[in-house]
């Protein structure tokens, strides 16, 4: 039981939910990552623009003093008016303090990065002092021959706090969206599987006495139509097989009833009074004929059952068809002479691999059938040859009664007789053509029949290789 449970596939709903959940989670995580990165990039752009304005303003103010450094503190003190959380420091020459804005004392505590000669976003740097984090720029430039170094920085506390809260809210929103989306996905999958569930119920409710029922493919979604068509086809096969089995059971009961009735009747008559030995012998001979016919019928049925279950494995021997058919002509010579029928062979064919005994049995059934249905004084023609598709053919042509077209498709059925009124003893067991068809198909070939008012032709097609 544990092995079976381990090997059981997961349900379709769980499988689809797993893939959908993974896809949704991946999309949300990627979306959240890119949103946060976009917000961070936005703040970087914003900080850069702010720092650029500060440095350019400082540069303009320094340019306005015309090298008079004593005026620098007064001019620079108003440089960041209206800007909050922004700090700067000016050195001239670099390393010598000239001025710093209020709260910019921290510049003395940081390690200065390599200064840039121009204002550029790629030159942004970050500093962490105690618990505070700053983003800034360090730029060197020269005005009227005087070298300056400007360090500008912005307090990132507000941005970081905003991003942290934004991240928490965003993940919470994504969690809610994930749950809602997965719930909606589950509901959608359940609704999507409803036609499959309904189809399963309809299939489960079909009983053995309802094999004629069919599922309308047009009433189902496109994805299930192929399944419905396949199921209808299976039902058709089951119905045909069940019908054949029912007919076969009825036919075999009918076929067995006649010889069994004869046996019972003859035995009852023989037991009504004492009789001479010769009459008892005649009765036993008559019973023996019926018993042999029953034994042959049972043997034929057993062979057909084995053939249906692929238990017959034909041997492979190269057979000269012309020689085999001539041997059969000799075997049926007495029967043909009694019926005043002539047997002729036409054509040539290459040797084929086949089971000699099985093929001889199939051709014997066809020849005996042809002799039985050919009028006196007529000729039976057997033609052999090779088709362009490399199949060998054997045609057995006999003049006789016309077989209606609607009966041709049933002629290879078991116990089928074109004329049910004919004597059953002279007709055989009614399994000959069914056995012939099974033998030919076992060899990978096929058999066909056609009939008109002048003649009936059985054609056997056999491959050149098994």
From TrEMBL:
It is a multi-pass membrane protein. It holds the Pfam family CusS. Its EC number is 2.7.13.3. The keyword Cell inner membrane applies. The chain crosses the membrane at residues 12-36, 170-190. It is found in: Cell inner membrane. Residues 251-466 form the Histidine kinase domain. The keyword Magnesium does not apply. It catalyses: ATP + protein L-histidine = ADP + protein N-phospho-L-histidine. Residues 190-243 form the HAMP domain. It is an enzyme of class 2 (transferase). This is Sensor protein. It comes from Methylophaga aminisulfidivorans.
């Amino acid at each position: 039981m544990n092995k079976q449970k381990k090997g059981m596939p997961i349900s379709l709903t769980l499988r689809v939910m797993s893939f959908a959940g993974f896809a949704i989670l991946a999309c949300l995580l990627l979306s959240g990552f890119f949103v946060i990165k976009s917000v961070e990039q936005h703040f970087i752009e914003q900080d850069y623009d702010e720092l650029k304005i500060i440095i350019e303003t400082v540069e303009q103010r320094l340019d306005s003093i015309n090298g008079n450094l004593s005026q620098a503190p007064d001019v620079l003190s108003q440089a960041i008016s209206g800007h909050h959380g922004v700090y700067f420091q000016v050195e001239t020459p670099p390393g010598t303090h000239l001025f710093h804005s209020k709260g910019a004392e921290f510049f003395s505590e940081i390690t200065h990065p390599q200064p840039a000669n121009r204002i550029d976003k790629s030159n942004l740097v970050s500093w962490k002092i105690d618990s505070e984090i700053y983003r800034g720029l360090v730029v060197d430039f020269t005005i009227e021959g005087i070298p300056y170094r400007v360090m500008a920085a912005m307090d990132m506390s507000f941005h970081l706090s905003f991003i942290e809260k934004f991240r928490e809210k965003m993940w919470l929103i994504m969690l809610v969206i994930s749950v809602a989306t997965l719930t909606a996905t589950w509901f959608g999958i359940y609704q999507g599987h409803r036609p499959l569930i309904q189809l399963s119920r309809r299939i489960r409710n079909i009983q053995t006495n309802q094999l004629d029922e069919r599922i309308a493919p047009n009433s189902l979604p496109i994805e299930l139509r192929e399944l419905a068509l396949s199921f209808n086809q299976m039902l058709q096969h089951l119905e045909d097989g069940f019908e054949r089995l029912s007919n076969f059971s009825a036919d075999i009961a009918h076929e067995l009833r006649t010889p069994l009735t004869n046996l019972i009747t003859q035995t009852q008559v023989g037991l009504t009074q004492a009789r001479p030995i010769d009459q008892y012998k005649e009765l036993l001979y008559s019973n023996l004929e019926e018993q042999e016919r029953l034994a042959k019928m049972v043997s034929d049925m057993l062979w057909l059952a084995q053939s249906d279950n692929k238990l017959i494995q034909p041997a492979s021997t190269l057979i000269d068809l012309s020689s085999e058919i001539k041997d059969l002509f000799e075997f049926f010579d007495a029967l043909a002479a009694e019926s005043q029928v002539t047997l002729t062979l036409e054509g040539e064919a290459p040797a084929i691999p086949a089971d000699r005994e099985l093929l001889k049995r199939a051709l014997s059934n066809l020849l005996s059938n042809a002799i039985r249905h050919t009028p006196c004084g007529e000729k039976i023609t057997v033609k052999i040859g090779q088709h362009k598709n490399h199949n060998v053919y054997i045609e057995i042509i006999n003049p006789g009664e016309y077989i209606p077209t609607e009966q041709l498709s049933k002629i290879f059925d078991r116990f089928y007789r074109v004329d049910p009124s004919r004597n059953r003893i002279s007709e055989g067991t009614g399994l000959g053509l069914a056995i012939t068809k099974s033998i030919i198909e076992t060899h990978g070939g096929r058999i066909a029949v056609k009939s008109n008012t002048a003649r009936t032709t059985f054609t056997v097609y056999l491959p050149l290789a098994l």
